[in-house]
Design brief:
nine-stranded mixed sheet, alpha/beta
Amino acid sequence: MAYIKIVVLLLLVIGLYGFASVRNAKRPMGNIAIKFVGEENLYLTEEAVNKLLIQKLGALENRAKDAVVLDSIEKIVQSSPMVKTAQVYRTVDGKLISKIIQRKPIGRIEGNSRFYLDSEGKRMPLSRYHSARVPIITGKITEKTLEDAYVILEYISQDDFLRKNVIGIHIKDEDAYLLKLRVEEFVVNLGSVENLDEKFKKFMAFYVKAAKDNSLDTYAEVSLKFDNQVVCTKI
C-alpha cells in the first residue's frame, strides 16, 4: 500500500511539473537582454540589435517561449558586420540573454572606400555609433598593400610605445610604407614589411638617443629600409 502511494505521488509531481513546463513555454516572452562583452566602445547598440531581430523575426515579446529558436536568434545577431561572436541563451527564470563580442578595429582606411581593418585583418564597416581611434591608412590601397598594412598594424598593436604614437600609415607603393607619428614631425620609412622586429628595434634605439640629444625635431625622414642602419634626412 505504501509503495502504491509513493508511485501515485511521483506521478502527480511529474504531471504537475510537465503542466507547469508546458504552461511556461506558452507564456509570451519579454524583450531580449543584450550584453556586450569586453570592448567599452560600442560600434553596435542594444537598440540596433533589437531592430535587426525585429526585421528578421518580428516582435519577440509577443512570441511564446517555445516558438523562439535560440539558434536562429544567434545566427541573426552574428550576421551583423560589427559582431565577432554572439551567444544566446535562456536563464533559469526564463529571461532571454544575448552576449555579444564585437569585432575590434585596428586601422582605418581612407580612400575611395572607407572602412576598418579588424584584428583578424578583415574589412569592417565604419560605425554610426562610434569612431575608433586607430591609425589612418592612406595611399595606394590594394589587396596586397592591405595585407601588408595589417602586418604592420598587428605589430604596432602589440607594442605600447608604437600603439600610442603611430597615428598613420601612408602607402606609397607595394613595399613602400611610411609611418606618421603623433608628436614628431618626421616620417618613418619602413620600406617593406620584411624584418619588422629588427626595423623597429633599430628605430627605438635611434629614438632614445635622438630624444636624449634633443635632435628629434631636426629630421624630415627616418628610413629603416636599409639593413643594419638608420638613415636620417635632415629638414
